[in-house]
Amino acid sequence: MMTGGDRKVILYAGELNTAACDEHVVCITEERREQFFGPHELGSLERGGFDWDVNSPWWSEMNARAIGEIRARMDDQDLLLLSSGQSQQVIADALGVLTVAEFGVGYEGIILDRRGGPVFAAFESHSHRHLVYGLRGWRRGREYDIVIPNFFDPGELPCGGGGDYLLFVGRLICQKGVATCAQIAGALGMKLVVAGPGATEWGDGFVKYPEGEARAPGLEYVGAVGADERSRLMGGAAVTIVPTVYIEPFGGVAVESMMCGTPVVTTDYGAFTETVVEGLSGYRFQTLQEACDGVMDAIELDRSSVRAYAMGKYSLDAVEPMYDKWFTNLDGLWGEGWMALRDREMVS
Known about the structure:
Elements (H helix, E strand, L loop, with lengths): L9 E5 L8 E6 L1 H8 L19 H17 L5 E4 L6 H6 L4 E7 L14 E4 L2 H10 L10 E2 L17 E5 L8 H11 L2 E5 L5 E3 L2 E4 L2 E4 L4 E4 L3 H10 L2 E4 L9 H8 L4 E4 L4 H4 L6 E4 L2 H12 L3 H12 L1 H16 L17
Parallel strand pairs: 1-2, 3-4, 4-5, 5-6, 7-8, 7-13, 8-12, 13-14, 14-15
Antiparallel strand pairs: 9-10, 10-11
Helix pairs in contact: 7-10, 10-11
């Protein structure tokens, strides 16, 4: 989003990365990554998931390489954007002369500065910002923290024509609520398609995952899917159900579905209270009856309006100005900071 303007974007990442940037600095080769993790393939989470231990050799090697490469290129007034929380704490500590900012914060283990306070953060939702503040006992807000939602490329999520099945997409863990989806589908007598990594057994009307199982008449498990198949499934669904049990920091599946024109039915807390507008993009529920009613009402929503809503709030074009505003504010820390006033007509 930030390329093509006045800002220079340097990306420090793995070798196989196609993100747009002014310079791509490889901090871990594909050969080395495979030595740590094995071949990258759909369904890899079925082998036990990803280890976020900050002392793991892959983080240590990646972070050390990143610190050296950044030092070789940095200017004191650069913005250092980190995206993996405390796994990258060592980078923030080593390069503290820079303005350090975390973007896409949807986790609790945020980076702290050397005084024990937070670095500047862009949270994925207001609910998650307040959750993190509350968990850490912070009763005072921070002027340079901000909420910027996740962003999506509409070209990767074309509008579909809908269909007659309900859809669940996500990791197959109890906290994501796949069993709740099965209950809703069973109560309505509708087909449920389940997509995502983590299942150990499956068959007609049955999916078993490490923490439980889900059963519903006509349940179809299609395994882990890539971006194209995800979009096809979302565009062809009548409704996507996103019944996350925990306080969802954002819930990208809901917005991806809305981008495809497919309304969503979700639980009634966390970021869903911000992303799901009842009667426009979907409905939220607290009971099984509310969930079933929500599905039947959501089917009647205008799909073009659902997509237009999502485009207006979560597309690249909609989110880019939010980041530009945040970066401009952070740039001001090298000047008068919060006290700086730009030239404009003041109304008295």
